[in-house]
Amino acid sequence: MSTSFLLQSRQRNRRRKKILLAHKQRNAEIQDPFLPVQRRSCSSHTLLRLYSPKKGSGLLLLLWVLIHTVRHSLLRKYQKTGAIFGRQRMWGSIGWGTFAPIAGTLNDHTGDFLVSWTVMAVMLLLFLWNISKMELLKPHFSQNILRDVGAVFKSKEFLIFEVMIFMNGVGTGMVWFYLIWFVRSIGGSELLCGLSLAVQSFGGAIPFMFFSGWFIKKVGHFNLLIVALMTYVLRFLFYSYLYSPWWILPMELSHGITFGLYYTVLASYGKMSSKPGVEATTQSVIFSTHEGLGASLGCVFAGIGFDYLECHRTFFFASMFFACGSLVGLMLRFALRRRTAVIKIISVNEQ
């Protein structure tokens, strides 16, 4: 009697497990895209299987470096105002936002990056051909470039700007090179990665670049750097609690402040703070601090965090870092304003 009872109980448990399993499978087939999905590990050991180096990637990287060198040399052509530069740079964001979803779709359907890399290489070669046909302005060179650049570095205001640019560059590196990694780790598709870049461009960078001259005039260069740091606080804090990949799209509108507006501020301030004949050199120093120093260290910090802390905790600590950076920026702004006020008082008394 007891044996038959145990057998019946086991059979009922098996049937119950089969029903639960079938119910879970039906729910998985009809899944809300805004609900959390199965996630991958954020560590490099897991995701490098997806993004393993391919043949020809070194040649593409060399071409990419050449393009960036030529692009920064074109800053000499636009030696006017931040608004003019912003409207020229805006077209780069249009191309970025247009082709990112296309590349994501190609990657999803082919399961490889070869097709999208080929399209990229063709577009870069067309870019070089177009540059060769342009009538570029002949730059005015300084007679004593070391003296003029040294005078810029003696400015305490310029050095304070460099500190702010470095902190913003850390955030830029994390977004440029680890945001896609993060989206993939929480279950996002290649198409979603492309759509996030499209939202960054069309919803964020393009409008702010177009009206960058107005923002710079009304708010000021230094204040906009502080606003960018504060935006990183909210952006990374949002990422630290994000588990549903599609919800990343609304937050990518903030890219308009952290890149579109911020990038134009760098070019405008580089032209404004330099002496005639060293504008390109001064801008190279500024962008080297932003991309060469800040963004590279941001990649290092994010890589260590993704491997040892997990991606959500990495973004949380990054948010705290930028909160501290915002406070440092406010204190530096107060000190800079106070110093300017003291100089004005002294000059008035001397008169």
UniProtKB/TrEMBL annotation:
<feature type="transmembrane region" description="Helical">
    <location>
        <begin position="58"/>
        <end position="78"/>
    </location>
</feature>
<keyword id="KW-0812">Transmembrane</keyword>
<feature type="transmembrane region" description="Helical">
    <location>
        <begin position="253"/>
        <end position="270"/>
    </location>
</feature>
<keyword id="KW-0472">Membrane</keyword>
<dbReference type="GO" id="GO:0016020">
    <property type="term" value="C:membrane"/>
</dbReference>
<keyword id="KW-1133">Transmembrane helix</keyword>
<dbReference type="InterPro" id="IPR051717">
    <property type="entry name" value="MFS_MFSD6"/>
</dbReference>
<feature type="domain" description="Major facilitator superfamily associated">
    <location>
        <begin position="75"/>
        <end position="316"/>
    </location>
</feature>
<feature type="transmembrane region" description="Helical">
    <location>
        <begin position="315"/>
        <end position="336"/>
    </location>
</feature>
<feature type="transmembrane region" description="Helical">
    <location>
        <begin position="222"/>
        <end position="241"/>
    </location>
</feature>
<feature type="transmembrane region" description="Helical">
    <location>
        <begin position="163"/>
        <end position="183"/>
    </location>
</feature>
<dbReference type="Pfam" id="PF12832">
    <property type="entry name" value="MFS_1_like"/>
</dbReference>
<feature type="transmembrane region" description="Helical">
    <location>
        <begin position="113"/>
        <end position="131"/>
    </location>
</feature>
<protein>
    <submittedName>
        <fullName>MFS_1_like domain-containing protein</fullName>
    </submittedName>
</protein>
<feature type="transmembrane region" description="Helical">
    <location>
        <begin position="195"/>
        <end position="215"/>
    </location>
</feature>
<dbReference type="InterPro" id="IPR024989">
    <property type="entry name" value="MFS_assoc_dom"/>
</dbReference>
<dbReference type="InterPro" id="IPR036259">
    <property type="entry name" value="MFS_trans_sf"/>
</dbReference>
<comment type="similarity">
    <text>Belongs to the major facilitator superfamily. MFSD6 family.</text>
</comment>
